[in-house]
Protein 1
Amino acid sequence: MSGSPADDLRDRPSYPAAEAGRLVGLNPARVRRWFKGYDYMHGSAVRHQAPVVRRRGDRGTSYASFLDLVDLLFVKQFLDHGVSLQRVRAALREAFEILGTTRALRETFFTDGNDVYVKVRDQGDAILELLSGGQWTIAPVIRQLSTQIEFDSPGGLARRWYPLGRKGHVVLDPFVCFGRPVVVGRGIATASVYDLFRAENERAEAVRAWWELSDREVEAAVEFERRLAA
């Protein structure tokens, strides 16, 4: 992080745990645990499980920043493909130490897989468990994310998230509408489009006329909000 205004916006706590969980597809309680860790009993001793997602400083809050949100998405992607949270924790911990990063999702994971493999080959046992035959087996796992995340530059941090894909007309941009989901290029919150759609008895033509949106933009906003509500 450079400390620039741009970085501050991306790392500003903006999403309550319930909203972060809704956007990423996680239970709010799990979001809080991944951010703050938790205490548990081991025999007669109380131990603390460290957070899964590393955040800047000790915020003392379960609110997520845009970068936190993307890291949650990254970790969940592994879990959805059957990788245990314990293995992901260990691999990320080694990646942070070996590669000198504090964020899970950087463009290097998409563009520099071979170089990353060389760096960890002799040091990262946990990371190597996610590798096979010298190839990144995590590549198929995160390939889907590569169609959704836009980065600043090679090796940089996430800049925008397109939850329906780059052509899906919905984006989360920390510089637009405080990072809320909006229609691409319009700055209109998808929640507002969906609320009007329901108020108009699901007549898309009324929404188009009011917001001056295309059919595809209305359909994308409605699809996205319905997906969140499912």
Note: The two ends are 36 Å apart (CA to CA).
Protein 2
Amino acid sequence: MPNDHSPAQAMSTGGCLCGHIRFEAFGEPYDPHVCACPHCSRLSGGPLMGWAGFRPTAFTWTGPGTPRSYRSWPTVERWFCSRCGTQLGAAADGEEYLGICLSALDNGSGIVPVGHSFRHNTPAWLPAIPSAQPPS
């Protein structure tokens, strides 16, 4: 898949815990958000999972391994490492962006979520994300 990036664009890198899967993505992350849907909660092992979008043409699996995939919904494919189990990302059929797990990014801690999907599933003890507060 060709990349539509120039050397001046921001590059994000990431991969799995064991290092078998690596990737790079060019451009600013799109729609960073957290999700508390049942799939994301179960896959993350926590109350929510963080996501950032990247265009498929600006994203490359760089190896040495390649991810395995699982269709968690008829229209959603999720990627993970078959060696260590790290959740890496997902793609919804027909969407313009790939969803990459913030926890799989080397620099994910610097990305601030601006949205919160399935907020009603989030435990009451977890405070709302300030950037994703509902309008008053």
Note: Helices lie at 38-44.
